[in-house]
Amino acid sequence: MTEAQARMDEDGRAALAVISANLRMAGNNPDRPWRVQPSKRNPVYGPSSYAVRGCDRKFDNVGTAATAQDLVCDAGGVAAPDSIAVTYEADRFNTVALPPGGAPTDCLGKPLDVINADLPVVVPPGPNATTQTVTFHVAENRFYIDSPGPDAAPSLYCKGNGASSTPGPLVENVEDLHLTFGTVPAAAPMDTANIAGYLNASGVVNHTALDPLDEAARWGRVAAVRVCVVVRSDRPVVGGEGSARFLKCDGSVENSPPDARLRRTYSTTVVLRNRR
C-alpha cells in the first residue's frame, strides 16, 4: 500500500509539473533588441491565434489538426477528461535543446521547425532600420488523457508540433484531467484586472461576460488555469469498495469506484505570466 501511494504521488507531481511548466510559458513572445515598432516581437501570434485553448473532452482531431486554430472540440455529451493546447515562442532555454546546435523541442523532444520572417532591424550603431530575415521557433503542445489499448493504463499524453511528432504518453496511470480557466471580463485591462471567476472550456466559449469577443479573443482573456488530475495505483491494492472511494476533481466523492485500485486527486493553479 505504501509503495502504491508513493508511486501515485510521484506520478501526480510529474503530471502537474509538465502541464504547469507549459502553462507558465503560454504566450511567451518577448520583445527583441534592435527592433522597431510594430515588429518588436517575432510574429508568433495574430488576431486568430491561441496561447491556450481548452476542451471539456478530448479534441476530436488532437493528433491531426495543423494548428491550435484548427482544433475541434468533441461535442459529445458523455463526461470525459479535458484537454488543452498550449503555444509559446520556444528557444534553447525554455525547452530541452538538442545537441549539437541547441535546437528547441516540443513536449516529446522532437525538434521544432525554423520559421523565417523579414522584419525591420536596427543594425548597431543605427539609427536606421533595414529589413533582415530573422528566425524563430514556436512550440504547440496538446495535453490529454488516452491509452494505447483497451487493457492498457490510461496516461497523460502529449501531441507536439516537432518534426515527425506523433502522440505519446508522458505519465502513466493518470485517469482524469480537469481544467478550469480564470477569466478576466471582456472590457477589463489584462495587466491590472482581477479574475472574475473560473469557467470550464465551454464556459469560456459561451459565457455572456465575454460578449462580443470571438473565440480566439475569449481564450485571450484567460489569466490562470486550475489543473486537477486523478491518478490511480498501477494494480489493485485495497480490500473493498469502501476503501477504494476517492474525492474527484469536482469535489464530489466517487462512491462506486470501478475496481480495487487506489485513486487520488492532485491539483494546482497556474497564473499565465505572458498576458499583455
TrEMBL record:
InterPro entries: PilW. It comes from the Bacteria. One of its GO terms (biological process) is type IV pilus assembly. This is Pilus assembly protein PilW. It comes from Ramlibacter henchirensis.
